[in-house]
Amino acid sequence: MTAQTPEETPEETVRRLFPLLAEGRTAEAAALFADALSFSIPHPPGIPWVPEVDSADGMRTFFELLGRHVEAKEMELRQVVAAGDDVVLFGRMRSEVRRTGREIDTAFALHTTVRDGRITRYHLYEDTYAVAQAALDA
User: What is the rounded CA–CA span in Å between residue 73 and residue 39?
Assistant: First the structure.
């Protein structure tokens, strides 16, 4: 099952995303997304794992690039705020950039929207300075 079930809330749909990604099931994770979506991750130039994304297929590419370039170490979900179709997650994540061996340790906020059982917004806010320090050559 990939799409939101009739009994499932937007929060439940969004929460299904993280276990799928942790298990490397990128196709199933991408299937949670709508055919057209709003994607935003502000980042410095030269970050190879943040492509232009506007679809579920684009999300799959993003998840695959992320896994190829970054090794997830720890993710702590601290708070979830759900109101209507919007779900905002706050937490902390720690990962390692494979090419440099340097760590990214950042708080994050992820604003998602779920409409008709699919995620239509994925806007991630994180410490872009920490990402640049870990990913880019000094």
Answer: 24
Q: What is the C-alpha separation between 13 and 32, in angstroms, rounded?
A: 8
Average pLDDT, the chain: 93
Q: Is the pTM of this model over 0.85?
A: yes
The pLDDT assigned to 76 comes to: 94
At 117, the amino acid letter reads G
* Alpha carbon distance 38, 20 (integer Å): 21
> Which portions of the chain are predicted below pLDDT 70?
1-6, 138
Residue from 8, 6, 7, 30 nearest 17 by CA: 30
CA-nearest of 38, 37, 63, 36 to 49 is 63
DSSP states of 47-110 as a string? -TT-----SHHHHHHHHHHHHHHEEEEEEEEEEEEEETTEEEEEEEEEEEETTT--EEEEEEEE
